[in-house]
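Students often ask why we bother predicting the structure of a whole assembly rather than each chain alone. The short answer is interfaces. A chain on its own may look different once its partners are present, and contacts between molecules only exist in the joint model. In this exercise we take four input lines together and write out one structure for the complete complex. Read the inputs first and try to guess which parts will touch.
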Amino acid sequence: MDIAEHQHFAWLARSFGRTDYLPLTAEDLDALGAAGEYVDKYPGTHLFKEGEESIAAYVVKAGDVELYRSRPDGDLVVGRVGPGAVIGDIALFQGAPYISSAKAVEPVTAFRLDRSKLLLLLTEHPVIAMRWLVAGLNQLEATQRHVIRLMHRTVIEQVAELILDEADRFGEVRLSQTSLANLLGSTRQTVNQALSQLRKAGAIETGYRVIRVVNRNILETLVTGSVPAL
Amino acid sequence: MDIAEHQHFAWLARSFGRTDYLPLTAEDLDALGAAGEYVDKYPGTHLFKEGEESIAAYVVKAGDVELYRSRPDGDLVVGRVGPGAVIGDIALFQGAPYISSAKAVEPVTAFRLDRSKLLLLLTEHPVIAMRWLVAGLNQLEATQRHVIRLMHRTVIEQVAELILDEADRFGEVRLSQTSLANLLGSTRQTVNQALSQLRKAGAIETGYRVIRVVNRNILETLVTGSVPAL
DNA sequence: GGAGAATCGTCACCGAAGCGACCATTCTGC
DNA sequence: GCAGAATGGTCGCTTCGGTGACGATTCTCC
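Now the answer. The structure tokens for the assembled complex follow.
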């Protein structure tokens, strides 16, 4: 796997973040209750690994999960998803091996839906299947729009948006610039240059593995100002 | 809508061609039979128009359908789909207006599924809902992969692939270079330059609204040679 | 056949960003 | 605390491709 492909997959993660994937309500989860079980995972342990036969999908209940692909030259983080995310379902429905590994980076509680039970559940509860379907198609359409948005945007605009998305409640983004670059499908140098500009503009401060948002408005102007209304 | 957005949507068409979207078998269509009806459309007539309330999805049975978006500065062709394609379903499930217009460019036979009947059908026949769901998720995954493939490829590689895809049984592509450029999300000039290179390499001949494939191997080498295996 | 529109071929210019290179800073494990 | 690894900051070079411009060719419709 060459560098470019690294960027591909990481960029993919950014483009297709699944956080908003499945808008299931509490009642839906209750209905799903009989078909699965909650599992707790300590940080560093895996929910599933790339290449394994896909036997279950997970709905993340608490904690962050890191999705990555293992490569000869190291692991490539493909995404980081939090509560509400559904992972593993694509591979599950395709009947193919998982296309990425899922590792808990915090104490994670997730709802595990075994393949056999899930298929039965969806067959017996078409409404849930419908919801899943609708969510999937929504995701498909959102993906298209997102990609359109990403296509002709400069790196600095993408960086600004990513910072806004990823900043925690203290306005801090705790990622290395290399990770940032991978998430955007760009290079460290280019991202660094974009960060420099943002720093000079007074929008952010940078440190070792930390970016602090100083002036949120500047970032928002960058993000929204140049996005054609869709 | 500016030029850049033109390219966005046309590129979208290429990226997310829905031709292979719903791999429904004959039996599936039979099962669906009771919930819809075949409609015939003369060339130039619409199956639905952008902005209209989405009241039905269509499965194209015969003939080509052109998908486009109307803009103040003219229509923008977003895609051209043939038999097997499903159109209008995203808007339908979203409960939102159609996001594009669908016009028959040939005599078209399509199977029309009304919203109310379709929802009922899927609720009563969860297997069909499941199939639709699986197809949707497959499409989502394929879309991701396709986008990855497109992202870091040069225009000439994209042009080569597009020509291979679009060439008819005579090895001819009957599209203007402007249309080609839009399909790739590029510009006419850049595409023209790529075509020049291909022409000099002896891979194609160009004419007025026609590109003839002379040496298919050259094109295929270009397409496959530089695509990292996914 | 002729006028005007559409399309094609090509050029020069320029900005965005990938890439390699180099050094400074910060962290981590011993 | 210290060595080595990881990360950050910055250059310069180069390629790709978007943009505007101009003229040549082909088509279409009287």
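Check your guess against this: The first strand of chain B starts at residue 36 and ends at 41.
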